[in-house]
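Slide 14.
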Amino acid sequence: MIIKICGVTSAHDAHLCADSGADLIGVVLSDSPRRTSLEALNGIIDAVGSGGSVVGVFAAPGDLEQFDAGCQTELDYYQTYFDRSLVTVRQPKRAWIRAKRVKQNVELSAGSDITLLDFKDFQSDELLSELRKYYDKITDTTLVAGGLTVGNISSVLAAVRPLGVDVARGTEKSAGIKDPELVREFIARIKHAAS
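Slide 15: predicted structure.
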């Protein structure tokens, strides 16, 4: 089970997440309260070291094009909320993650990219029923995100078996600031559920 902690904005939090067992550290490089500055990015990459991989999260094609043109830093993964064929940029070191916000029926197409289904538009009490609707579509190439917390991650993993999970808000003290206890407990519950 891959664990991605997203919305990391500092080297301190990147080290905390990687040291606690996160496989992927997400850095938002688009307009967001969790946006990572380019100045902080290299420190985050250094803090993660060989203990994990860094994922650049891009909401719009222009965000990725601006990053590609203005920053020489190489990232392990690009996570996009748009079709990657819309941009011509250098490739990530490892792979692309195609994120799709789940609002209604989402079409999933076969391909080589990892798919992230983002359920953030659903309330906590709706999350499990929505996840169950996608049971047949959540495969070993799918990450699940949105609304995940320490309080519901065990139930989510009992309902579906994705490649991995992605959390931001569920591990924060405030936007972009990680809570060490929540990070560690979230990861511990995933490892327990996967064993």
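Speaker note: The longest strand covers residues 95-101.
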